[in-house]
Amino acid sequence: MAEYVIYETVAVLQINNPPLNVLSHHVRRQLMSGLQQALQDTAVRSIVIMGKGQIFTAGADVKEFGTEKALSDPSLPTLVEAVAASNKPVVTAFHGTTLGGGVALALASHYRLAASSVKIGLPEVEIGIVPTCGVSQRLPRLVGLQTAVQMIVSAQTMSAQQALTTGLLDKVVSGDLLSEAVGFAKSVEVQALADRRVGSRAVPGADTAEDVLDAARKRLVRRSRGAIAPLTCLQAIQASLLPFETGMKREAELGQYLWTSWQTGALRYAFLAERTVKRWYLPGNKTVNYRTAEPLVINSVGVLGAGTMGVGITICLLQAGLKVVLIEANKTQLDKAVTLIQRSLGGRSHSKQLSHQAMQLRATTDYRQLGEVDLVIEAVFEDLALKRKVFQQLDSVTKPQAILATNTSGLDIDKIASATQRPDKVIGTHFFSPANVMRLLENIYGRHTSPETIATAMQLGATIGKVGVLVGNCPGFVGNRMKGLNFTEAMFLLEEGAEPQDVDKVLEEFGFAMGPFRVSDLAGGDVHWRRRIQAGLTTEQGPPPNTPLLYRQGNRYCPLADMLCMQGRFGQKTGAGWYRYESGSRAALPDAVVHRLILKHRQDNGLQRRNISSQEIVERCLYPLINEGFRILEEGLAAGPQDIDVIFLLGFGWPRHTGGPMYYADKVVGLGILLRCLEKYRALHPRSAHWVPSSLLQTMATQGTSLTAWAAGSRL
Ligand SMILES: C[C@H](O)[C@H](C)C(=O)SCCNC(=O)CCNC(=O)[C@H](O)C(C)(C)COP(=O)([O-])OP(=O)([O-])OC[C@H]1O[C@@H](n2cnc3c(N)ncnc32)[C@H](O)[C@@H]1OP(=O)([O-])[O-]
């Protein structure tokens, strides 16, 4: 609700809708009635709009979108325009965070005040919408095109000081916001309002407008990769150069265009999915869930292994204020890691706080120093025998109640847990590289992992600012199990006629930051080569004895990646992989050596080259992965499609504007079309088991069920 209080001649309207003061219908109704009351009351000479609680407002109520409530009177645009039309000065005073609709109210007001700690932002582009309610029209008039583009298109928040410098704020206050706002409102009661109305101003610097917009457009065309919201937002900003009323009409049209696009639905879904997965439960036993399981309190964490992952994990633990004991047997490696960690923590602006964080690190070669930690994250080399040995040691040196987590990207959690006397306290915590940057934490429970251990790992993820997704134990878990198929098919496409750059280009146009071959070169082809060797699919010298070149373990197999690795072409780190790299450069250049290798491979094996369409590349690379997602749901390894989608959005660079693989299949491709496509490729490629449609997909496609509706029904 919104509260109405009078302070002498000032009417204060306070939004009170915890926790985030979103502008839901009941809040808008009360704000509107408060505004009307203040306008009618002759004793009131000015109006202040504020928020109670932690923040001013997170903006419009996203959960109302698409429902009748969003449009019910007063809608947000109606409320904002009523503020703009007020003939008594309106002062918006904000604190905490002010987003979207909150900024719209502020821009429609005559004055803007904020607490010094405020963060102001326009996250609309991230949920695929244009900042409406006049934001795209008033903001450029107030702060200029350059800043407006920066705020609207980048969705980055601005500090109070920046907002003051750009002219968005009239004043930053450090004392009590309510009394400062009331005092300020009184001081402007006699001021004329005409030139305080942002809508009646002209955009400053109109003579350089085209240059600013052109530069932004070029940048966005390069970066958007199929996402339509950023460029549409830019068009709305451009309309601010028109007369205000015309610009407002254009803003509404563009808003409607985005609103009805499938991408907006996908982005809104992604926003909510990231929050839904926090409410975890075991797919096979819903009684074990975030409500019933209590996490242990974690104050100190041991990290075992100071390689790239260990360093990244240590940085995010320290940044969250935890004490860390970093163990590494190799002293030189340990010293190198400490330097990296200290540099990373000290390299930011709040150096006092961060040097305190760096002081929470104890780095040692001595395992016994782990005696007092509450939880250990093991990050040694990806080798089952080694990890089992390490867990045996951890079991003997840590206190009995300590949780032992393994940062494996696909090894069997139960096999690791069985090396200890406490399998209930063993869990997988799969970080993504770089661990201090990537927001995903794939948490894997084993057969004996206790609810308390799961709750603790999920809580730890939240503490260190990650989105934890809980999944079951299977080779590769959810992410790598699905992702592997994408690369498999990408290689088959090379055998059939494509070049690495063709496949990468199509998937980059689809929205991935990098295609599978560029990703492979970045990650290092040797990592997966070692895995294939361990799995008995190949050897360092080529196919295992008596094995056909193009088939392994009953399935079609492409040996091209193995051939590159046998030549020492591991990717960027060796200067050559699927592409070649000039010294010091990360630019992937098509390589005639690879071209000839593929050509010869086709000739030697009687593989016919044909033209492959972009559509086929998308279908071949993405549909098997999606089919595997359905199998994962069928096998109860993930609670719902949201969990899978979040893993791909945050861990694998899946384009956010498509919602993630499962949402894309359900809402964009359509399950019926997906099924028919899988069947078509299954007939063409009978030796690839991944084309066999999952039975869950078959049932849903035949019954016409929507995956998202099915998931919404089953979610806790
Ligand atoms: C005119 C104008 O152009 C248009 C028309 C608009 O205004 S469009 C709307 C623009 N506003 C946004 O896009 C808001 C984006 N929100 C955020 O960036 C963050 O939420 C946050 C504010 C920085 C807080 O982060 P947090 O980490 O402390 O908590 P949380 O876990 O994220 O959120 C806690 C709970 O609040 C829910 N929530 C957050 N923002 C919400 C919103 N705007 N509407 C409804 N629910 C919201 C969220 O789903 C979760 O619910 P549940 O899952 O627990 O049921």
Automatic annotation (TrEMBL):
Keyword Transferase attached: no
Annotated ranges, domain 3-hydroxyacyl-CoA dehydrogenase NAD binding: 301-473
UniProt EC number: 1.1.1.35, 5.3.3.8
Main localization category: other
Pfam families recorded: 3HCDH, 3HCDH_N, ECH_1
Record's subunit section: Monomer.
Protein name (Swiss-Prot/TrEMBL): Peroxisomal bifunctional enzyme
Gene: EHHADH
